[in-house]
Design goal:
Elements (H helix, E strand, L loop, with lengths): L7 H6 L7 E4 L7 E6 L3 E6 L8 H18 L18 E2 L5 E6 L4 E2 L7 H17 L18 H14 L2 H6 L1 H9 L2 H11 L6 E3 L8 E4 L5 E4 L6 E3 L1 H12 L17 H15 L5 H5 L1 H22 L11 H19 L1
Antiparallel strand pairs: 1-2, 2-3, 3-5, 4-5, 6-8, 7-10, 8-9
């Protein structure tokens, strides 16, 4: 692929020559990401401003974190966006979409699915170290890039609203999933007690801790760098630990329609919690430590509610490839949640 994949203003801003080789990169579904191979290799990305409506907030949050880490943990590898000659990190194309560029971190790789306890442990250590190193930063200057992203109370309200407005045919088809979702409403009460009781610290968290948001070193297999920092913003530790658990403990993804293939891999769960707490335990309160088993359940329930609400709304948010896909995703996550409730 040639440089026609990139707007001319982006080529000019980052000094990308016309004969550079450009190829799609990664497995993300929100942004468009490209590997540019020229004199130096760059990762160039078009930000989806329809999802992330405050791209300047993303850039600002990243700058705050970069400055803090440079001052307090200078040896820590934190990926920062490149600037053009005028000091701009975001370059706006004619269609209004912002672009950014990063240096390629050589000799690293990503994985999409956890295949071993060692891999899960290392990823959890990587995300835990990230939050640990940001401990002490003033969070007041950070702007939420997605409002109330992991607010379980709000997500349940969205589900109730979607249910009230849904056509009867959809509520009938999703009757079993709606009933199961309501059975777990007690998790909303637990969440409210935790966050409203001021027993958990507001931290700067990653908020999207899938394992493919860690770069691993090709030579050592160790976590080298945390990536995809669009949701870097104030949050609770349960958001990061919970999403790791949700996305890693099952041997199949949230797209799996065969409920019999969904499982709770206890050894993966233990590796995740051990790796995360290895970095974070000394900075956590007794109440936070008690909430560790809640984290995975809470984040799995959020995704079940979000998928189910989107199905009831007529599939207006998540990309689907067949009409019942969001219902299948919700069913999948409710099954995983049921297993978590059994084991945790």
């Amino acid at each position: 692929m040639n440089t026609t994949a990139l707007p001319p203003v982006v080529l000019q801003a980052f000094g990308i020559s016309a004969n550079a080789v450009v190829n799609p990169l990664g497995s993300g579904h929100i942004h468009q990401t490209f590997l540019v191979d020229a004199n130096e290799k760059l990762v160039v990305q078009r930000i989806n401003k329809n999802v992330f409506t405050k791209p300047e907030a993303i850039a600002g949050n990243n700058r705050l974190a970069a400055h803090y880490l440079a001052a307090h943990h200078p040896a820590y590898l934190f990926l920062t966006a490149l600037c053009d000659g005028a000091g701009n990190e975001l370059i706006y194309a004619e269609d209004g979409f912002p672009w950014r560029a990063y240096p390629l971190i050589e000799n690293t790789f990503t994985v999409d699915f956890v295949t071993s306890s060692e891999q899960a442990h290392e990823a959890a250590k990587g995300f835990g170290l990230f939050t640990r190193n940001l401990h002490g930063i003033d969070s007041s200057g950070f702007v939420p890039t997605l409002d109330r992203f992991h607010d379980l109370h709000w997500r349940y309200e969205q589900f109730e609203h979607a249910l009230a407005q849904a056509p009867p045919a959809l509520t009938k088809q999703a009757a079993a999933e709606i009933s199961r979702a309501k059975e777990f409403q007690f998790l909303v009460n637990q969440y409210n007690e935790l966050v409203r009781g001021n027993s958990m610290m507001i931290r700067i968290t990653h908020n999207d801790t899938k394992i493919n948001n860690i770069l691993f070193d090709k030579n050592t297999g160790k976590a080298a760098c945390v990536i995809d920092l669009d949701t870097l913003m104030p949050g609770y530790f349960i958001y990061d630990l919970g999403d790791m658990v949700r996305t890693c403990v099952s041997p199949v993804s949230e797209e799996e329609a065969d409920l019999g293939r969904i499982d709770f891999r206890k050894e993966i769960y233990e590796a995740i919690t051990e790796g995360y707490l290895l970095q974070m335990k000394e900075f956590m309160s007794a109440t936070e430590l008690q909430a560790v088993p809640f984290a995975g359940k809470m984040m799995t329930y959020i995704m079940a509610l979000r998928f189910l609400a989107d199905y009831l709304r007529g599939n207006t948010y998540y990309t689907i490839h067949y009409p019942e896909q969001n219902l299948v995703r919700a069913r999948n996550q409710l099954q995983l949640l049921t297993l978590m409730q059994k084991y945790l």
